[in-house]
Write a structure and sequence with these properties.
mainly alpha; 6 helices; about 90% helix; disordered N terminus
Length: about 210
């Protein structure tokens, strides 16, 4: 009888871990998908402006950029609120979530730091270094995910972000702003939105 109860308890525990992993992947995936698509779209629209495909007014672009951020914050708030209602997490899940949350916080701080210095120095070059550092931070966060989950595709995403950082760094100061913005936009879609979609798919099928 004790062995039966113990087996049932073990099965219940394993089921809880699987369900928790699914919820965590769904939450993270939704955030990455939204961020990648929204900010990737922003970069690609800006790229069409640079190469002369579109000719939007400055007012339109300002409203567009603000709208992108407001939309993402709404998605982030809804997803985070739903995730908080899911209950407690294991140490491993909390650690992985903390790695990505820390990356997000680092990106926010870096945005303020580079933005302030770029404004004070009137230097576009300084501001262009911000996405380079963000790419490095993303590469580290996805590497942590690979170490914890041991999934090859996570390592590929990490390597992709590091390669993006290198590519952006080479373009800084080159005068080819179009290539810089295009590379960043493609990276956001391929290395953030796509992995987010994969995570959501895995959560549904897991």
């Amino acid at each position: 009888m004790n062995e039966t109860r113990r087996a049932q308890a073990d099965l219940a525990f394993m089921k809880a871990l699987v369900e928790e992993a699914g919820r965590s992947q769904m939450t993270g995936g939704a955030i990455f998908l939204a961020a990648g698509l929204l900010y990737g779209l922003q970069c690609l629209v800006h790229w069409t402006q640079i190469v002369g495909i579109t000719h939007f007014s400055d007012t339109f672009m300002l409203v567009f950029v603000i709208g992108i951020t407001v939309t993402f914050l709404i998605v982030l708030g809804v997803v985070t609120w739903r995730d908080r209602r899911a209950g407690q997490r294991t140490v491993g899940t909390r650690a992985l979530n903390a790695a990505f949350a820390g990356a997000g916080l680092a990106n926010l701080v870096l945005c303020g730091v580079f933005g302030l210095v770029a404004w004070r120095q009137r230097s576009t070059t300084i501001w262009l270094l911000y996405p380079v550092t963000v790419s490095v931070v993303q590469g580290v966060a996805w590497y942590v995910a690979y170490v914890m989950r041991k999934r090859l595709w996570l390592a590929l995403v990490s390597a992709g972000w590091i390669a993006t950082a290198a590519g952006l760094a080479l373009l800084v100061g080159s005068g080819d702003e179009a290539a810089y913005v295009l590379l960043l936009g493609v990276a956001l879609v391929v290395l953030l939105a796509l992995p987010g979609w994969v995570m959501m798919r895995l959560a549904r099928t897991g």
